[in-house]
Amino acid sequence: MEIGVPSSWRKIRERYNLIGSYCENCKKSFFPKRNICPNCRGNGKLIEKKFSNTGKIYSYTIVYSPASGFKDKVPYIIAIVKLEDGPMVIGNIVDSNPEEIEIGKEVEVSFRKWFEEKDGGLIHYGYAFKLK
Amino acid sequence: MNRVAVIGVGITKFGEHWDRSLRDLILEAGIKAIEDANLDGKEIEAIYGGTMASGYMTKQEHIGALIADYLGLNPIPSVRVEAACASGGLALREAYLAVAGGIYDIVVAGGVEKMTDIQTEEVTVALGEASDQEIELMQGVTFPALYALMARRHMYEYGTTEEQMAAVAVKNHRNAAKNEYAQFQKEIKIEDVLNSKVVADPLKVFDCSPITDGAAAVVLANMEIAKKYTDTPVEIIASSHATDTLAIQNRESLTSIKATRIAAQNAYKQAKVEPKDIKVCEVHDCFTIAEIIAIEDLGFFEKGKGGIATLDGETEIGGKVAINTSGGLKGCGHPVGATGIKQAVEITMQLRGDAGKRQVNAEIGMTHNVGGSGATCVIHIFKR
Q: How far apart, in whole angstroms, are the C-alpha atoms of residue A39 and residue A19?
């Protein structure tokens, strides 16, 4: 899979720091960042927000058949995490065996390689989660 | 609004067509539908063709004009419609709207996907593009993984089991074995599903719809002239479409598809029917858990009871509501852009009494076509 430099580069700040949006009108958080609040639209007041580093596993799966670009990671764990002070975020759970993963377990944010493009191409990085 | 009817249907065999191209598939389904409607072609005023990823999978875009070209129907307008796995259903809806709105009297709605010209891992990427690329595909979240996340949560909240999910695949293979157009012609057992290779835990190979080549087409006509062409027009009494967030992390729930619930409410209201009036329904079972969630969201079964109902045989032919008599995406195959149209072909055949060994006695039928992990849902209700 090839993504290309500009589309990855312009997301670096958000992906490296888990930065999203918070609407001061409806008090809801969003990740990734949004330009308008989907609840309030014209009445929304969005500000940038860096989310907490902790959350709980809401659901998870262990992937054995990868998309191209992720073959060397198999099996890998994907979870939806409910952040303590914010929205749900999907991401990899790293440094754990599949047997250790359960709904409700606490995780913290970690910074990891997402994937490497073919033949020495671009390496993409971002947030991941690990068990606390 | 004009009343609209299906007056002709056409479908290719679903499967691995190594010897046939995208164009060959379009041609076969299109010509069959036009002949079935007793048209010679010049009556057709416009075409709506659904395909998801022809560019990625066959390096061919500009499908609208291509369809008209190969059916010998230039210079009429021909539109390509894309809504991931709901491309076919949405093409049907666009065609319906054009006739209902009085723009045209006779149109063709088709769907096609040619998936076996590229490697499986590349198909996984192509399908993954229907998810939220920036946060899902970029992290290695495959389509089976998205539905596995829903399955795990459904199991956690309602006690749904892997055996109940397997029962969906067993039923759909049983129905497929009665459908000459289906990719799979063999029945399977619960153990075959449970013992198959894990794709994204808890989903296994036999919980997943396959990679398929195929095409399907229907001819729609204004009801007032439909009888000129056929004695058995099947009326479309509701057409609805709803959207939701692309990424599943941003949805209200993982155990229910909101776009399905909203599209269903609107469709039932339009058609003035209730879930209990639907006796045959093609639902979007891209994964076994998707069928369980769908039959709950469509109101056939209480939330959390879809798995047990399936295991108890309530969704079999002859059960409370016959679900996926064609074999569904699981058994009949899932050429992505063709699926929504295939569903309409199956329901039309059922309501005309042309469904052979899988015939259900029904007056009203429904199709439920989902795009991606639930960001698009298109529902149609049909009446004979």
A: 19
Tell me if A58 and B254 make a contact (CB, 8 A cut-off).
yes
Question: Model confidence at A68, in pLDDT bands (50, 70, 90)?
Answer: confident
The list of chain B residues with pLDDT below 70 reads: none
Interface mutation target, options B123, B131, B138, B165, chain A, most CBs of A under 10 Å = B138
Give me the residues paired with residue B239 across strands.
B380
Q: How high is the pLDDT of residue B155?
A: 98
DSSP 8-state secondary structure symbol assigned to residue B53: S
Give the pLDDT band (50/70/90) at residue A85: confident
Q: For chain B, how many structural domains are there in total?
A: 2
CATH number of the domain enclosing B260: 3.40.47.10
pTM exceeds 0.95 for this model: yes
Q: For an interface test with B, which of A59, A72, A73, A111 has the most B Cβ atoms less than 10 Å from its Cβ?
A: A59
Residue where a domain terminates, one of B202, B234, B266: B234
Please indicate, yes or no, if residue A46 is contained in any of the structural domains: no
Total domains in the fold of chain A: 1
Distance CA B372, CA B370 (A): 7
Domain that holds residue B160: 123-210+237-383
The pLDDT assigned to B150 comes to 98
CATH of the domain at A113: 2.40.50
Alpha-carbon distances, residue A42 vs A25, A28, B78, B125, B230 (angstroms): 11, 15, 37, 36, 51
Question: Which residue of the set B17, B173, B284, B334 is catalytic?
Answer: B334
Which candidate from A58, A92, A103 shows the least CB-CB separation from B139?
A92
